[in-house]
Amino acid sequence: MGLFPTPYVVQTRRFREGPEKDPRGSLVKKWDDPVTQPVIAIGPKERVTDPSVPGYDRVIVRRQIYVPPEFTAGPEDKLVIPAHRNEPEREYTVQGYPEDYTEGPWDFRPGLVVRVTRTEG
Q: Which domain of life is it from (predicted)?
C-alpha cells in the first residue's frame, strides 16, 4: 500500500504508433485496451479560452491527476475519468510524462502528477 489512500480509479489507454501506415504514408495512431489504475486525487478543472479571437468557440480543459508512484502513463495516452457527482465520463489526453516526486534525498515517495487536457467545441 502506498503513502496516500487511492479512493479513485481511472482508465488509461497506452498510445501506439505504427508500424502500419495510412494512405499518405503516416504511421497509424492507435490506443491499447483500457487498464484501470488507482488515483490519489483528481484536481479541479482549469478552463482556457480566448474570446477575443473571432470564431474561437473552443474551450481547453486542463486537469492534474495525483497518482501513486507505480502509475504508468506517457505522452498522448488517453485517460478516462469515470462519471462522478454531476459529471459524465470524460476522456482526456496525457500531456508529456508524469511529474515525478519520488526521487528526493529521503525515503519519501509521494507519487506523480499527470497533466491531462481535453478540448470542447
A: Bacteria
